[in-house]
Design a protein that fits this description.
single chain; about 90 residues; mainly alpha; 3 helices; about 40% helix; elongated
Length: about 90
């Protein structure tokens, strides 16, 4: 009977110890979206993927870290029919 009680006490102690360790080691989730940073493609939820931020030199874990473009080129392609072109004239 003493052995069973000792085993039960030891098991209870182990369960409490493991639970305490698990609650101390929380997974980091910078943006609070429920996806851990280790697998979140946009850890700070700023709309730019972490890999792109790393390449551009911005902080992938800070939503206030932005890269600014020196110039922006805009190219617009349209496909007009001859009727649409005639209407424009």
């Amino acid at each position: 009977m003493k052995k069973i009680l000792a085993i039960a006490v030891l098991m209870a102690f182990c369960i409490v110890a493991v639970s305490a360790c698990a609650s101390e080691k929380k997974v980091k989730d910078t943006d609070g979206d429920g996806i851990p940073d280790g697998i979140d493609v946009d850890a700070d939820s700023d709309g730019m993927p972490d890999m792109q931020e790393a390449v551009m030199g911005t902080d992938p874990f800070s939503a206030s870290s932005f890269a600014f473009a020196e110039s922006i080129e805009v190219s617009i392609q349209t496909t007009n029919t001859s009727e649409e072109i005639a209407e424009w004239r």
